[in-house]
Each structure stands twice: as structure tokens, then as C-alpha cells.
Amino acid sequence: MNEDIFEIGGLKLTNRLFTGTGKYADDAVIPGVCEASGSQVITVALRRVDLESDTGNVMDCIPKHMQLLPNTSGARTADEAVRIARLARAMGCGDWIKIEVISDNKYLLPDGYETAKATEILAKEGFVVLPYVNADLYVARACVDAGAAAVMPLGAPIGTNRGLKTREMVRILIDEIDLPIIVDAGIGRPSEACEAMEMGADACLVNTAIATASDPVMMARAFGRAVKAGREAYLSGPGAIHSHAVASSPLTGFLSEG
Amino acid sequence: MVVVINGKEAEIVDGLSVLGLLESRQITPETVVIELNKDIVSSDVFGSTLLNDGDHLEILRFVGGG
After folding, report:
1. CA-CA distance, A84 to A45, in Å (whole number)?
2. Distance of residue A104 Cα from the nearest chain B Cα, in angstroms
3. Which of B27, B38, B62 sits opposite A91 (nearest CB)?
4. What digits encode the pLDDT tens for the residues A184-240?
5. Across the interface, which of A59, A88, A185 has its CB nearest the CB of B31?
6. Pairwise CB contact (< 8 Å): A45 & B64
7. pLDDT tens-place string over residues A49-78
8. B58 contacts A91? CB cut-off 8 A
9. Residues in contact with B52: Cβ distance below 8 Å, sequence separation at least 6, in sequence order
10. What does the alpha-carbon distance between residue A148 and residue A116 come to, in Å, rounded to a whole number?
């Protein structure tokens, strides 16, 4: 098989699992997670420095070859997301940005209208914009029109590990949206990431499921393999699904014949 | 003079630069991004950007996130 390249924002990726840096009991496992999963893209958030206590710097734990994908978490409006994105770019780690605009604190569902607005502003400023959205065709189309580099529909609410609850809506996005579809949020098990990839998703972003596993490095390896397996299954062209049995062995030459 | 740093008032000496403030707080300049009165301060002018009474300063950095 020719090398399966995933190109986004001018970068050629050979791995389709994006990872995150949140919720680790110890950030020191992050290099192991990156290595075990093969991931080449990793998310971070931007926050105020704690002036009262000296906490560790997560950047010290991120391997240098990783493409950084800062998010705009904490933003409740498009304007706040734009502000965070510009600050993130000023850190000098590239111009990729994951738009997260959320004002609902219980389910952390993204505001599609504000997300599309922020996408438009930032795409015009040259950002590689990856908006986190509900699995909604119209929101996805608005993000396409706004200049997004990919669309990132949720599988389930952030951090829930509930799986690919939005599978039918994600399937529609895969069918209808010409940009890469990266399933982000809610995926709790490697089998669910595998399923998303089998359906034709271009990549998955997994943070909580890896970070909160008892052995994050082993789980990262499992997710890396699951994403690869799902991708290969998709590329291989799965066979048809039938409602009745279709024999796999020949229906002639039985011992009892004649 | 008094400035507001990350939402909290702080007393600082007159004539302090952004770089001087970071050094006084043991913050490595390369690890942070600064917003002064809603404008981003480029890291190459941290040393020449002086703080004034009433300034609002945000000192941010990357943390773990998904």
C-alpha cells in the first residue's frame, strides 16, 4: 500500500490520531504517549500563569516534533476565541488553532454560530482553523464557507468517554463535507475510534480516554493501532452487509450428494 | 504604582519593564505570552515596554488541554 498521507494545513501527516495534554495525573507520561500512539498532533490550552505557585510547564513534556494544536477553551464568544487564538499564535508555536466556543457548562457543547464566526475571522488572518462542532451539517457547512481546514464533530460530550453517540450525524458529515472530518471528544475506547475511522473519518482526537486510563501509554498504543486498523479497513473497501446468511463455503460437493 | 496582573492588583516599582516584572516573578519570558491593556506585547519588546500605573496585564502560557 502506498503511504497513506493525511495533509492538513500544509503538513503531511502519516498518523491520524491527534492527542491531548489535559487531565494527566503526571505530565511526564506525555512523551511516552506520543511515542506509543505515533501521534503527530497534540492539543494544549492557554491559561493565566499561576503567580502564587510554581507549577510545571507542560511544554517541557511535549516532544519537539509534535505539531501543536492550541485550543480556545474558555472562550464563550467568537471574540474571546479570536483573542485566545491570537495570543496562542504569539507564543510562536505555529498558526494551528482548534476553535472551542462553549457557554454551556453542563454538557460543554460548542456554540456553532459563534464557532463559525471565529473561524471566518481567524482563517482570514492565516490561521489553520480546526473548529470543534456539534455533528450538524449546517454548522459544518458554515465552517467550510468560513475557511476551516477541517471540521471536528464531537462523538459525545467532552470528557465523557461515552463513545461515538453521534455516529449517524458524523456519517452524514463524512458524506457531505469535502474537508477532513476529525472526530473529537467523547471517544472512550479504541474500538470507537476504530469505528469512526472505518466509517471514513479522516482522523480522531483523543485526550481523556488516554489520559485517564490506568496505563496511559498502553492505552495510547491501543488507540494508535485502532485508528490505523479502522483507516485500513475503510481504505480496503468493506464488503456488503446482507440481511440473510450468505454461505462462505461452496454449496456443492457435499458428501451426501448423489 | 499599582497594576492589575492576571486580574489581581499588584504593587510594583516605578519604571519596571515587562521583562523586569517577569524576572522579578521568576517567570521565564520564553514560556509566556503577554497582553497589556488588551494588546499583545511581542516578546522582542518585553525589555523596552515599561509599565504604567493602572495597566492591565495578562501573563499566559500553555497548559494541558484537549
Report:
1. 9
2. 17
3. B62
4. 999 999 999 999 999 999 999 999 999 999 999 999 999 999 999 999 999 999 999
5. A59
6. yes
7. 988 887 789 999 999 999 999 999 999 999
8. no
9. B1, B3
10. 9
For residue B55, name the pLDDT band (cuts at 50, 70, 90): very high
The set of cell numbers assigned to A124 is 482570514
Q: Which residue from A43, A90, A185 is facing B65, i.e. has the nearest CB? A: A43
Query: Which residues of A are tagged catalytic?
Result: 98
Round to whole Å and give the CA distance between A118 and A192. 30
User: Which cell numbers in the block locate residue A71?
Assistant: 485550543
Please list every residue in chain A whose beta carbon sits closer than 8 Å to the beta carbon of residue B31.
57, 59
User: CATH number for the A6-236 domain, one of 2.70.98.10, 2.30.22.10, 3.40.1360.10, 3.20.20.70?
Assistant: 3.20.20.70
Could A23 and B64 be called an inter-chain contact, meaning their C-beta atoms sit closer than 8 Å? yes
* Cα nearest neighbour of B65 on chain A: A22
Domain spans in chain B, listed from the N-terminal domain onward: 2-60
ipTM of the complex: 0.94
For chain A, the average pLDDT equals 95
Q: Does domain B2-60 fall into CATH 3.10.20.30?
A: yes
User: Which tens digits make up the pLDDT trace of A19-32?
Assistant: 999 999 999 999 99
Q: Distance (Å) from the C-alpha of residue A17 to the closest C-alpha of chain B?
A: 13
Question: What's the CA gap between A195 and A193, in Å, rounded?
Answer: 5
> Residue A1: is its pLDDT beyond 60?
no
d(CA A73, CA A70): 9
Residues of B in contact with A208 (CB under 8 A): 66
